[in-house]
Design brief:
Elements: H1 10-36, H2 49-115
Helix pairs in contact: 1-2
Length: about 120
């Protein structure tokens, strides 16, 4: 019979979360580099028509690159937030299940105690 349940491996999710953090730091460094070091600085191509056209192309490509890296950064942040939500929700669910199991266990201990020979109810 197939198991249609969902299984969450918290260690794998936590490892994935750390990997996302590393990628986000890399993207932040990349974005800082392309904005600070490359932003608006195109090669000196002169004032001839071809030079001006190439300078415009360079500026357009730079803007596209900044946009793509910014979207990647946003996607990483959204993925991090979703992963955090899953970890928090699953940990809360597990804690509730553990708490319920402990409560059930203590309740059953009282029942077992009451079933023992010679037990007098108060």
């Amino acid at each position: 019979m197939p198991d249609n349940g969902t299984h969450v491996q918290l260690f794998a999710l936590e490892d994935f979360r750390r990997t996302l953090g590393a990628r986000l730091r890399e993207v932040d460094a990349m974005l800082d580099n392309i904005i600070s070091n490359l932003g608006g600085k195109h090669p000196g191509l002169g004032t001839f028509e071809d030079g001006l056209r190439q300078a415009d192309n360079y500026a357009r490509l730079h803007a596209e690159y900044v946009d793509r890296v910014t979207r990647l950064r946003s996607a990483l942040i959204a993925t991090q937030a979703a992963t955090d939500d899953i970890l928090i929700n699953y940990a809360t669910t597990e804690a509730g299940a553990d708490s319920s199991a402990a409560h059930i266990g203590s309740t059953l201990a009282e029942v077992y105690s009451a079933l023992e020979p010679g037990h007098v109810s108060a």
